[in-house]
Structures
1.
Amino acid sequence: MNDRVLRLLYVLTFLLATSCQWEQMNPKIDCSTSPVVIATLEVQASQCDSPVGSFAVAASGGEPPYTFTSAGKTNVDGIFANMEAGSYIVVATDANDCSDELSVSIENTGGVNLTEVITNNAGCGTTDGSIRVNATGGMEPYSYQIDNGEVQIGNTFEGLGLGTYSVAVIDQNGCESAQSVEINSGVSYEASIKSIIENNCAISGCHNGSVSPNFTSFSTIQSRASSIKTKTGNKSMPKGSSLSQQQIDLISCWVNDGALNN
C-alpha cells in the first residue's frame, strides 16, 4: 500500500471519528441583521356579484429585488387585482430568500364578511384541531363551508389535522367571503424541543460552541430549523440516530409550525 493511499485512509478515519463534522451545515444568511418589512399601501373592496377587489403592498429592507406572493399568484410590483372578498396572506421575499408576511382583508361591499376566525391546535400526529368562524352583514341565516366541501349550517369545523384550510361563509343572497386558515400542532419549543437539542446536539465536543453551528443559541436553531428537521428525519443527525421516532416527530411538527420561540 503506497503513501498516498495511507494518507487517504487516515483522513477518512479522522473524519469518521469526528462525527459532528459530518453534521455541519452550510453557512446561511442571517435575515435578522437586515430584515424584510412588508406594508400595505392600498385596499379596494370587492362586490358580491363580481371579484373586483384589489390591494397593493410594498417591501423595504433586506436585499432587493423583491417578489410578492398571495393566493397562488406571484409578481414583482406587489399589486393584486380581481380579488374576491376575504383575507389573504401576502409574502414578500428578497434576493437572499429572506421574507416577511402580513394579512390583507378585502371586504364585500354591502355583503357578508368574515369578522373572526378562532382556531385550536391539532396536536402532533393527531386531528384535534378545530376552526370556528363568525360573520356579519349580508342576509342571514348564513351557511358555512370548508375546502369546497359540503355546506353546513354550523359555524364550527372539528377533527382537523395539521394544514391550511379555506373556510367560507355564504349568505342567503349567495354572497360569499372566504379566508385561508392554518392549523398548527402547538408543539412548544420550551416544553418539548429545547431539551431534545440540549441533550443530543448541543453537547460537549459537538454543537455546544466547539463545532459550528452553535445550538446553544436559539436564534441559530431557529435559522437552521429546516435543516434540523431534514437531518433528524433522515437520521443523519445526531450521529448514531439516538432520537426516538416521537422526538423526531415533535421536531418536525415544531418546524412545520414555523419554529416558534414558544
Note: The radius of gyration is 24 Å.
2.
Amino acid sequence: MRPQDVLTLRPQGLYCPAADFYIDPTRGVERAVVTHGHSDHCARGHQAMLATAPTGAIARARHGKGAYDTFQAAELGAAIQMGDAQIRFMPAGHVLGSAQITIETGGTRVVISGDYKRATDPTCTAFEPVICDLFVTEATFGLPVYRHPPLRGELQKLFASLETFPNRAHVVGVYSLGKAQRIMGELLACGYDRPVYLHHSLIPMTQIYQNFDVPLIPWEPAADMPTEALRGQIVLAPPSAVQEPWARFLPEPLAVGASGWMQVRGRAQSRQVELPLIVSDHCDWDALCQTVHQVQAETIWVTHGAEDALVHWCQGQGLDAAPLRIAGRGVAQ
C-alpha cells in the first residue's frame, strides 16, 4: 500500500481512511487521535479521543471534564487495532504524555511525529526513532541557523545573573505546559537549592506533572509571597507577564526569555528580554536532519514551521519530500 493511501490530508487535518480517525485535527471530529496536549494539536469538541493518560488529564484541565464524549487512554508502545490499521503511541520527548503516532496497514508503516525534541528532558519520556515508510515531521526550527545549546549551559547564565543582580526578581518567561516544568525539572537535577515561584497560570499544569510523579523542584505561588521575599529569586511566568500589571508587585523584575527563538537577537529585543536563554521543546536543525536519517523513510511530509527549507534538504538527500501547509498551527516554544 502506498503511504499516501494510509494517510490523507483533509480540511480538518491528517486522516487515516483505514481506521476512520484524524490525527491532531484542528477542529472537533468524530474520532481523534491526539499526539499531545498543546492547544494547536489538542482541539476541543471531539466525540471520541485517543491519547496517552497525561494528555487526557491535560485536555480535561484545559477544556473541562465534559469536553469529550469518550476518552480512551493509550499506553506507550502498546498495539491498538482500529479498523484495518494497527496503531502505536511512541515517545516524542516534547512534553509530558507526548507521543508519535505509528500506523501500520497493508504492509506500510506511517509515523506522525507531532511535536518532538531530541534534547534530554527529565520531565518526559525521550524520543524514540521509528523506522517507517512515511515520516511526518514538524519544522518549527527548520533552518540551519537554529542550533540549540545544552540547557545546563543556559541555566548557568541565569545563575550568573542571580549573583550579579541579587536584588532583582528574575522573571523567566515560559509556557505553562512543558517549558515551565522542564525548567523546574532541570533546576532540581542540577542541584539548585531554593524553591521557585510560579505565576498562578502555571500551577494547574504543574500539578498535573506532579500527579504523574514527575520530579520537580519545590515551588510556591508567587502571589503568596511578600514582595521583598522575591528579591534574587526565580519567578516563572507566561512570556508576556513581565509587561502586565501582575508584575508590578515584583521587586525590580528582570525579564528572562526561555525559548528557541531567543537565538534571534531581534526576537529578544522585541519582547523586551534582558536575559535571553535558548531553551526549546522542539528539534533544532541538526536534530531534524538526524531524525530524518534515522527513521529511514523514503517519503517525508513537513509541517508546522520552515517547511520549504527542510523539504529542500530532504530532496537533496534523494527523498520524496513535500510540505503539508496545515492551517491552524500555533506559534511554537
Note: Residues 328-333 have pLDDT under 50 and may be disordered.
3.
Amino acid sequence: MKKYLLVFLISFLTFACSQTPQNNQSSLTKAEPFLESWNEGVSKKAIEDFIKNTTDPNSPDFIPEKDRIAVFDNDGTLWAEQPMYFQLYYAIDFIKKNASDHPEWSKIESIQAILQDDLKAALDGGTQAILELVMVSHSDMTAEEFAQSVRSWLQESRHPQTGKPYNQMIYQPMVELLELLRANDYKTFIVSGGGIDFLRVWAEEAYGIPPYQVVGTSLKAKYEEQNGKMEIIKIPELNFIDDKEGKPVGIHQHIGMKPIIAGGNSDGDYQMIEYTTQGSGPSLGIYIHHTDSIREYAYDRESHVGRLDKGLDDAARLGWLVVDMAKDWKTIYPE
C-alpha cells in the first residue's frame, strides 16, 4: 500500500510541476488583445516583437524588469493637439471666466486680445505671449485649487470641432500600447512639454499613469500658510521647460534611468527619442505620424502645432519606427 501511495505522490507532483508557469516568461501572448485597435502590419509587428524579445529571458535582447522604462510625449502622441494645444484652451477659458476679478490684467496685451476673442493677436507675441497666458491661469493659487480648476474645466468644456470632452480625445491605440507594456512589466511615463500639474490631474484616469510618473514643464512653487493652513502655492515663475533638449534632462532628473522605449510625434520629441535609442542595447524609438485627415488631422512639416520635419527625415536612417495613423490604426478615439 505504501508503495502505491508513493508512486501516486510522485506522479501527482510531477504533473503539478509541469503545469506551473515558468517565472520571467513574457506575457505578450496573454496581453496580445490589448492591441486590437491596431491594424496588422509593420508597425504592430515591430512593437510586439520588441516587447516579446525584451521580456523573454531566453532572448539575447532580454531586459530585466527593473530596467524596463517607456516614455511618451502627450500632446499629439497620447491625445490630440489640433487646432491648438488643449492646455492653451484651458488657459483661455480660465482668463475669460476670471477676468472680472483681476483688473491688473488690463495691462497685458495678450490677455486683452483673448477677452476680445482675437486669438491671432493674442498669440502674435509668440512664446512670450503664451507664457503670459499660462502664468496668469496657472499660478497665484494653491496646488489643490489649480487641480480642481482643471477638473471642472475637463467636465464642462468641449473641443470646438469634435464636440468631445478633451480628455476623451485620447488615442485608443496608444492606450492599448500602454496597457500592453505594463502587462509585460514595463513602467510607463509621460514626458511632455505640457504642464506637469495640468497633466497630473487626469493622466491616471485616462492612461493608467499615476501622477508620480508624469514629467512636464513646471512653474515654481512655495510652501506657506494660507487661511490658517500650510499649502503648496503655485507662483508665476518658470521652473523648467520640458521640451526638446529639456526632455532628456527631465528624464534624468525625474526618472533617473535611461528609457528603453520612447514615443513622440514632433521635432520637440527628437532629443528624447535620440537619447533613448543611442548607445548599445535594445531600444525602440516611435514617431506617431498624423496622416489621417478624415478621422483626425493630417499635418507634419509645416504645422504650427506638432511640427514633424527633422524627425521624418532622420527616422529611417536612425531606425525609428514611424506609425502611420491612417494605415496603422483601426480607430482613433475610444468608443
Note: The two ends are 63 Å apart (CA to CA).
4.
Amino acid sequence: MLRLSKRAWNNVLIFASLFMIVLFNFSNKLMLENANQTPLTLLPADAMIQRIEFGQQELQRIGRGWRLQPMRGDEVDLNQIIQNWQQVILTPTERSMPANPYVITLWLAGEEKGRVVTLAPVEQQLLLAYQGQPYQVALSLNDLIPSGSQ
C-alpha cells in the first residue's frame, strides 16, 4: 500500500474529484450532441394512435385493424396512413401556414386531449403546424390523409 501523508491524500482526493467533474461534464456534452442528431418527430416512438379525425371523417382503431368512418371514395391502405403518421419527421421552417389548412386531431392512448395539427400543401411541399410552430414534412398530403377526406 502507498504510504502518503495527509496532505498527499488530500491532493489525491482533490485531483480525483476534478477528474470526475471533467469526466461527467464531457459525457454530458457527448449525450447532448447525440440528442441533437436525432430527428424531430411528431409522435413519440412508443405512441399508440387510437383515432385520427380528418374533418368529417374519422380513422378508428378496431382491434388490430383500422376503419374509416364514413367510408368515401376508393379503398385506401389505412395501415400505411397510420405508419406514415407514426414516422412523420419534422423540419423547422420559417414559412407561415396559408389560410384554410386541413385540421387534424390525433388521439393517442394514455392522453386525455387530442393533438391538433394543421396541414397545408405549399409549392410541392407539405407544411405541418403543431403547437403554433410550422414544420416542413417530407411526405405528401395523400400519404397522411385518406383521399376521400380532402
Note: The chain has a mean pLDDT of 86.
